[in-house]
Design goal:
Length: 174
């Protein structure tokens, strides 16, 4: 009889410890808090770091730009960069807000409303950035000679064709 009690006690103890090890009695839902937005661009190492030329030099060479044209375009790029900075900072903040909302414990309806609002604001910022880019392209083309404009159009067509070809070969997400 004592042996049966001892066996029963040990069996119950082992079953109890087995189930208690798998079950967490105080299970709390923890969500990772998004990191603060990074406003400045983080530089990643280039895949093709063996190239010595700066980005854009190939276009300058292909169009045979003069030094005066290069200087004007550099000034335009710097001005554009300054215009874009506040927009990109706002965009980064909106992405951070979006991450926070997505990770929040709010109801689906509340999340959906907040997400829609943030995405709408992000869309407006993207449109502002697109306008600046269009202005920049117009300024770029104004600096070119008629021959350079023809060559530039040819280059753009080639790049579009390459993009379309890559897009066709890219597997679609399901």
């Amino acid at each position: 009889m004592k042996l049966n009690k001892l066996f029963l006690t040990l069996t119950m103890l082992s079953v109890f410890t087995m189930f208690s090890a798998n079950a967490n009695p105080i299970e709390t839902k923890t969500t990772p808090i998004p990191t603060k937005p990074k406003f400045e661009k983080q530089h990643k190492p280039h895949k093709h770091h063996h190239f010595k030329h700066k980005k854009g030099n190939h276009l300058a060479e292909a169009l045979n730009l003069t030094q005066e044209q290069k200087d004007i375009l550099k000034q335009n790029r710097e001005a554009s960069k300054e215009k874009m900075k506040p927009i990109m900072k706002k965009m980064s903040k909106k992405k951070y807000e979006l991450d926070k909302v997505m990770l929040s414990n709010a109801s689906k309806e509340q999340k959906a409303k907040k997400i829609a609002k943030i995405k709408s604001e992000m869309k407006a910022l993207k449109l502002q950035a697109d306008e600046i880019r269009k202005e920049d392209m117009k300024k770029f083309e104004e600096v070119l000679t008629p021959e350079q404009k023809v060559k530039f159009e040819e280059i753009k067509k080639e790049k579009r064709a390459q993009f379309e070809q890559r897009k066709q070969h890219k597997p679609k997400n399901k």
